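Morning F.,

Quick status update on the modeling queue. The single chain you submitted on Monday has been processed. Sequence for confirmation:
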Amino acid sequence: MRVGMTMPVMEPDLDTALLKSWARTVDEGPFSSLCWGERIAFDNPDSLTLLGALAAWTDRVQLVTTVIVPQLHDPVLCAKALATGDLLSGGRLTVGIGIGGRHEDYHAVGADPKTQTMRGMAERVEIMRRVWAGEKITDSVLPVGPAPVRAGGPSLLVGTIGPRTVRSAASWADGLAGITMDLDTGKQNQLFDVARGSWARAGKPAPHLATSFWFAVGPADAARDQVRRHLRRYMNWIPTEYVDAIAPTTGWSGSQDELADTLQRFAAIGTDEVHLIPTSSDLDQVHRAAEVVSDFT
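Structure tokens below.
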């Protein structure tokens, strides 16, 4: 099982130096991938702009969007931006996509919340695939480029935690890029089984099975409080009292040995990759996780 690290894009007070240090530290470490998520009505960096910077700041790790919401973008421009990022990174891009969980992001860009469906996402994926295949989708002299490094475009992962969504994505996705809130490996394996069966029925190779969880390495009380503070900030569309109610059982916190044990539990159910999501922008969290991942892999 491989282990990736997510950029701290949902943390406050980010600047170029911090983001570059994170990217280079992850790239130089034992991690398999560097991930980042998308929000619009928030103070995180724009995902597609950040892709270009991460392509320039790194040389080795796979770059994984977890996730881009295609309904928030013009699909042709989105396809062009992603293909550009794939080109700049030398073909290291994997595109995780999802429908998003907040209407405010749709409203912020003038997108119709009625398109916040798997059908709406699949329709845009089809357009992006056509662009990446070099098809002229309008009456133009040349097709929309650049061409992605991999023929047909980057690998696509569906960001979801629901079996119905997994089944519907089998026709176009190469795997999953989900999240586990409570780290229940039994439930996670059930979802993986749905994916395995759906991909087999579609006559496709076995899906890439990835999941993610929030983490904080440190003394028990301090680490759990770090997770709680992050959730309060990130889940700002949910009343604080509700966030505080789920905080004790959401994400992971504990010692390095406990993190190793947790990763081993996910490896045991056939997880291909875990994406760790930081709850602090402190680089020490990356270093401490890297020590665990080095021993684990």
